[in-house]
Amino acid sequence: MDHPYRLISLFVAGIVTVIIGFFSLRCNSLLISVYSSSQHRQNSTALFLCALGCSDFCLTFTIMFLGGLVNWRHEGIFQPLLNVYGLGYPLVVQLCLVLGTTSIYFCIAAAVNCLRSAPCTPKRAKEVVIVITCLSFVLMIPQFMSVDILRCLSDYSLAPSFTPCLNLHLRSSFKFIVYQAYILIPLRVILPLLLLIILGFCLIVTQLRKRHRGRQPVPTTDDNFEQFEIETISSVNSAQDYTTSVIAIVVVFMIWFSIELFVHFALYQVLDYSYQDDILQFVKVCHCAFNLYIYCRIP
């Protein structure tokens, strides 16, 4: 790794990303503490948002490990960092991919739940969260098997250390190529992006219709019926608050997908892979920190 890139990477991924990561951990911890309270956990949409906060909280830890530890270990300050990185890399990369997938589908589940005329029960929402988590782990098993750990001499000292490397034999096999082209990319990129675009459009249209309907005067002659209408409108406004948060999350996910696709395809010939990785990790941790907006929008 050349010296100029090492300095840039150390500043962006090793310092800035870690600082924003701590801010993201605080934002998501606030979100989890509120949505897991008795007041909100009776709402299925709130449960999906709570699961999203938990997923982004853990995802931030993995990004801080991959972005921060990998850069500080290149400085050769602490020899144990080399072994921690080498031994933990395969598991952390696996968790990062799994948590990124769960966050995407938790967002999709929350959007679908907001569009339903009769939202699912909290029990069914918990079952959906468990199923999404288990399927995400199963989906990433081949990725976990494609990383090996080698014991070698450190570049910065003569002490032996562990370093991760890709299993090129497995990654070049026909089965792995089929897995990436027809299973991983469609289920983790193409399908979620299409669903987010469709659900985001439907949510915005639904929200605009609700606001237009809420502005219309309701003629009443009976006091009890008027009180019923006030309670109904109040409950609709509460649901709109959840919907507004979900719309914001969907839009941010679409922006994240757009940046990821732009970096991978438009900047593929311009930037080195290491630069691309640093940019994506920085944007991803900023995305996780955006959950502060959801916390501020809690009804």
UniProtKB/TrEMBL annotation:
GO terms for molecular function: G protein-coupled receptor activity. Gene3D superfamilies: Rhodopsin 7-helix transmembrane proteins. This is G_PROTEIN_RECEP_F1_2 domain-containing protein. One of its GO terms (cellular component) is membrane. The lineage of its organism: Eukaryota, Metazoa, Ecdysozoa, Nematoda, Chromadorea. Residues 27-295 form the G-protein coupled receptors family 1 profile domain. Keywords: Membrane, Transmembrane, Transmembrane helix. Its main location: membrane. It holds the Pfam family 7tm_1. It is found in: Membrane. The chain crosses the membrane at residues 6-25, 46-72, 92-115, 127-145, 177-205, 246-267.
